[in-house]
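We treat protein structure as text, and this decision shapes the records that our systems exchange. Below, we set out a record of this kind in full and without editing:

***
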Amino acid sequence: MAQKKQKDLGFDYPKAVSRIGPVTKTRGAEIARRLEEEYPGAPVPSLNFRNAYQSVVAISLSAQTTDDNVNKVLPELFERYPDPTTLASADIEDLERIIHSLGFYHNKAKNLLGLARMSVAEFGGEIPATMTELIRLPGVARKTANLVLAESFGIVQGIAVDTHVFRLSHLLGLSRAKTPAQTEGDLCEVFDYNHWYRINYEMITHGRRVCIAGRPRCGACVLRDLCPAAS
């Protein structure tokens, strides 16, 4: 994927809050090298979407549930509401019915309506392609915006920090930040820009397969000797 550098976009990623010294950066470079070797090839999103509209909807719905669960509701959702304009006029009870299985469906349906209506009212029915505009959409925080920008527009402005990335970043001693946004700032200092895009996918994959929450497989981990939390 051709990446457009954040420094050319006039938007700064969050400032680092932890002390990111040369030792941490060197360890981060080795972590990135090993993860890329362990999970080679181009990252492939686990959510099913084909355009910016579908990506922002799918990623927004993935909060507090699994990507597999989201993928099950997307076909009906996108068949009934194929674009922001049709979604903006949706009946909220119908939306809630479709996404009911995902949990938090009242709030998620409200956010879907809100982002669609803002898209129509302010962006001509299109999904905006800047961080500043994306995070104005209801239900869209930096994690979602980072993924939408990268997957749909080829723009890499930061590192998407979900629960896996947040957890592994702290276990590996790469951040002591208390929020995902602050953790993103630390990781952007730790990792070289050319690895920002794929580190999200590598950490998610590693968190699902090896560094599993509550039952980590430290003996099978390629990062064991670099991880302060390894047992």
About this structure: The chain is about 55% helix and 0% strand. Residues 105-123 form the longest helix (19 residues). Residues 210 and 216 are 6 Å apart (CA to CA). The first strand starts at residue 4 and ends at 5.
